Amino acid sequence: VWSPDGSRIAFASKRAGSEDVFVIDANGGTARRLTTNSGSEQPKAWLDNETVLFAASGAPGRMAAQGPFASQIYSVKVDGSRPVMYSTIPMAAISVRPDGSLLYQDRKGYENAFRKHERSSSTGDIRLIKDGSDKLLTTFDGNDHNPVWTGDDTFVYLSEEDGTLNVYSRNLSGSDKRKLTAFTTHPVRSLSAAGNGTLAFSWNGEIYTLVPGAEPRKVEVSI
To answer: The pTM is what?
Structure first.
């Protein structure tokens, strides 16, 4: 996961035994280990240029309703200080805006995250944490995944609303929803956005980029 200023990358590695969070300079160098728990930790986003948010099945508050599928979100500084609890709510994907407003994909059930065409009350939805409140943004009874900020009031995400996961764009009120891709045979996965607005995602085993308003372009990879 890239830091907001593009100077560092946080990643998970089993080089120490269990899956821990490490950080490395974007130009290479020696990786620094940030977590030491014997369980598995997965970086989800950067809260700022010095703080990584990661998921782990640690020790939630005693009043938290948690199933065996759930994890919590913790924050850790890149200076090596101890992780602290950020949220007991499971978050499958996180995107943070510079002002601290946070979009996330909720995790209500134990179904495999890669299951397709599910319709139920436990499918993923997009939520917004802003100014101390938690607001539901999507109500489709299928999967809405992977929110990514693209502006002060706009974001992109993946939705199965048309039958398979495609890229959509909308504002926080939902009044300007647009479908940006029209794939029919396979789901879009792993959506991200660059600072200049270019989107990237995977589809059918390939990597694509997309400038909103244009057609997706496959990244040519030669090995």
So the answer is: 0.90
